Amino acid sequence: MSQEIWQFQNDITYLTLPTWEEKGARIIFTSRHTGHSQGAYMSLNMALHVGDYPEAVLANRKKVLQLMGTDLSHMVCCQQVHSNQVAVVDSSYAGRGSQHYEDALPSTDGLVTATPGLVLATFYADCIPVFLFDPVRKVAALCHSGWKGTMGLITTKTLEVMSSQFNCQPADIMVYIGPGISSCCFEIQADLADKVLSAFAADDDIIISKQKRIRWDLKETIRRCVINFGVPESQIIVSSWCTSCHTDYFYSFRKEQGITGRMAALIILAGGKSNEEP
To answer: Where are the chain's structural domains?
Structure first.
């Protein structure tokens, strides 16, 4: 299956999947260049909750949304509290969290929609973005999977919502596990490793112990959850990019010791007949 590619447009460098766009969903994962933010947030910080000037963030968001042929009034954001809560959103949610963090969907880390033209957006600096798309039912989803969300099976919960609310079939769903901290850099303590091994008992190789270091392969953990749900392996793309290794391209919460910007993960369904529930 075709992999992620870099594109440069509107003075912005971003990752995307042309094969998904051909099937009706455009996705963007931004880099940290080139925007309006300064200092620790330089320069394409997309998040309102990290201490950056809101004016700079909104200018960055407007610039990126132009790539999708839309604006802030069609963007939906959630507050990302490392939960496994998933919301189904439609046009009535348009604009939530796009200009003010306070009105983003609270206590939510996953978004699902069947509304064409609605932009789902989540924000990252090491956690794993998971894009989901059913080209048959025309349903798109996005979830934020840090280690807590991964333990809480946020991706599985999102798949369950797609299935229960829109009758999406696992065999039709496409998944992109995007850039985030990889096993080369995600070092954890022994007590968390024990919890991971207890939660994923059949997958003990997701924990790598070497030279007194314990590392967790979050992306592989998520991939196996997706496979266990029934999504064909051939329809899963796993990004090769580690945000901690590549701070020349990405923000990294760990590498930059917590004071940094955020990339955005964005997905939009192309125009056409909506599959929304009445």
So the answer is: 5-181+237-269
Q: For residue 254, what pLDDT band results from cuts at 50, 70 and 90?
A: very high
As to burial, measured by CB atoms within 10 angstroms (0-12 exposed, 13-18 middle, 19+ buried), residue 211 is: exposed
Provide the pLDDT for residue 123: 98
Instruction: Please calculate the CA angle 168-176-34 and round it to the nearest 5 degrees.
Output: 130
- Here the tokens at position 22 are 């051909």
The reply to whether omega before 34 is within 30° of 0 (cis) is yes
pLDDT (tens digit per residue) in 23-61 = 999 999 999 999 999 999 999 999 999 999 999 999 999
Return the pLDDT at 2: 58
CATH superfamily of 5-181+237-269: CNF1/YfiH-like putative cysteine hydrolases (3.60.140.10)
Cα(250)–Cα(248) distance, rounded to whole angstroms?
Answer: 6
Tokens linked to 258: 């917590």
Which amino acid, residue 242?
Answer: C
| Cβ contact 268:140 at 8 Å | yes
271 secondary structure, DSSP code: S
